[in-house]
């Protein structure tokens, strides 16, 4: 889910894009006027061995105060690179049992948390928490969160009382707080559909589901605050522009929808309004992201599409 | 098909062996292997109309279906395993297509495979719900059962497989079905061969990409987009807002049946050729995607040997029928003339050639006696220069092709 990741670099006037395509990740950087500057391709390979490349599930930039890492999850394990994809700084292999089990094995779901961790989900429902030093390769697995029983689909985080939200295949959501360790705050039960994408903003959880619905929850209590029949097909991606509360959703129905989240300061009521529809003709969207923290531009990728389509507000 | 069927009274010409290449692999982890079966059933589904010799058709149909639903073959398919490589799939397909007295030349075989590939890709892509890929399979099986409704033995075999599918797949969650669907779609990624029946029906654009409708019924379980409902902290609904999402959708009528018999509702997977139509496929102009896609890892893969061994076990269950002198053979040509067929074979773009594995074996390589016997009977007309390998490594054998 959400095979696109975007990293805006303000000081260099550049935007990095990473798109997953089967067993490779394509990195491209573009300047504001749209001219492509460089390309690179990464594959999920163990160390440098000539093992067949496995399918990459996601690639995402994790922004920490001291550094930015590009994290790749695949059927083999988890790789972390420097932000330009030039050097791999860490590799974590997923346990593969012999003989291979009937269940698929993969990692999926990436988020930076609390300024010092990177959390990655697995197909068994475990969430691996990695401790990231401010520089160097001394990355360690510090904690394993065991709460989900189904494959993790997505993870989201923000600074606040509720730091982390994890979502799984059954549609269940777990909300966590991190002090020295992560503790479970609340659990939101599934209603029968996969939660494929989740975002956290201002204490509000935005979750996208396989039946095309978006739901908003209160992060601290887990209470349902809004339902939106947003799409006619499976939602693949949600993204948030943290400075404005804009939300975008991309689905297999070929639409990107833009929404605005708001929270009334006195009543605490959470509101969502629809801003814009964009149809990427004949394309089942696989990824969609805002290109800047205000949400003035966004990009989308689709199945069988070898391009990244960019939209800007005029 | 409106392609010419010529009855050839000489003995069959086997498929022209394509020159072997250093094997390249694309391994994907897979839930189970049953989609292969669905993929192959399409050849039968598209077999029906247009044949001039109905009696031959019945024989061909029975043979192919009997072979396909062979108990051992099905057992192997149902085991949880990785997705086959493209080469392996094509090889099994070749064998199945030749499980009767019907023969096809390389060009027609390629065309048939292209057609099957794009049709199946279309069906998987357009499934409204991830679980609908199972309904597509059931549509395939329903059609097959209709072809052999007068043969109770084969019908039993098919029903047995049907039951196994229901047992294994009915309880999977939507997320698990979506993973299966995504893995299948990755397999078919970047293939944009234009199929005339799709172009005519406007389900495919001239650039080879499929048309995705933004109207019609939403999938079962999805609401028609357009409504926002907001609740207060007590759970009471406090506000309702409508918006336009851009498409024009309506509610679905009913859910398709997942039982042995029933109305599937979904049309995907039903016979595309229920009205007789011409069969044509066009290679789209060499696209950049294909060029990068075929740059596969050329290093020998230790897992490739495993796969070839597995394939060999599978082949053990598939009989190759060779028409003997007295029984007329049956050659199918999917082009309008023999010359056109030959021309197509010569001009097929390099990157779209299918690398068919030709499994050569010496007697002592195979534990499977049956396979050894079949291999021995297999008429090898095109490769007098092939020397049987003395090595144990299957991979080494392939290298010598």
UniProtKB/TrEMBL annotation, chain A:
Q: Which SMART domains match?
A: WD40 (SM00320)
Q: Spell out the residue ranges that the record assigns to WD repeats.
A: 228-262
The entry's keywords: Repeat, WD repeat
Tell me which residues make up the WD repeat-containing protein 54 beta-propeller domain: 2-313
**Gene Ontology cellular-component terms listed:** centriole; ciliary basal body
What the entry lists under Pfam families is as follows: WDR54 (PF21031)
Q: Which InterPro entries match?
A: WD40/YVTN_repeat-like_dom_sf, WD40_repeat_dom_sf, WD40_rpt, WDR54_beta_prop, WDR55/POC1
What's any GO biological process attached to this entry? cilium assembly
PANTHER family listed in its UniProt record: POC1 CENTRIOLAR PROTEIN HOMOLOG, WD REPEAT-CONTAINING PROTEIN 55
What protein does this entry describe?
WD repeat domain 54
Organism this protein belongs to: Chelydra serpentina
TrEMBL record, chain B:
An example of a Pfam family matching this protein is Oscp1
Q: Which residues form the signal peptide?
A: none
Q: Which InterPro entries match?
A: OSCP1
Q: Name one GO cellular component term.
A: plasma membrane
What superkingdom heads the lineage? Eukaryota
Q: What is this protein called?
A: Organic solute carrier partner 1
Instruction: Please name the taxonomic classification of the source.
Output: Eukaryota, Metazoa, Chordata, Craniata, Vertebrata
- Gene name, per UniProt, is OSCP1
